[in-house]
Amino acid sequence: DAGVTQSPTHLIKTRGQQVTLRCSPKSGHDTVSWYQQALGQGPQFIFQYYEEEERQRGNFPDRFSGHQFPNYSSELNVNALLLGDSALYLCASSREHGQPQHFGDGTRLSIL
Amino acid sequence: GEDVEQSLFLSVREGDSSVINCTYTDSSSTYLYWYKQEPGAGLQLLTYIFSNMDMKQDQRLTVLLNKKDKHLSLRIADTQTGDSAIYFCAENPADSGTYKYIFGTGTRLKVLA
Question: Residue of A16, A19, B22, B88 with fewest CB within 10 Å of its CB?
Answer without folding.
Answer: A16
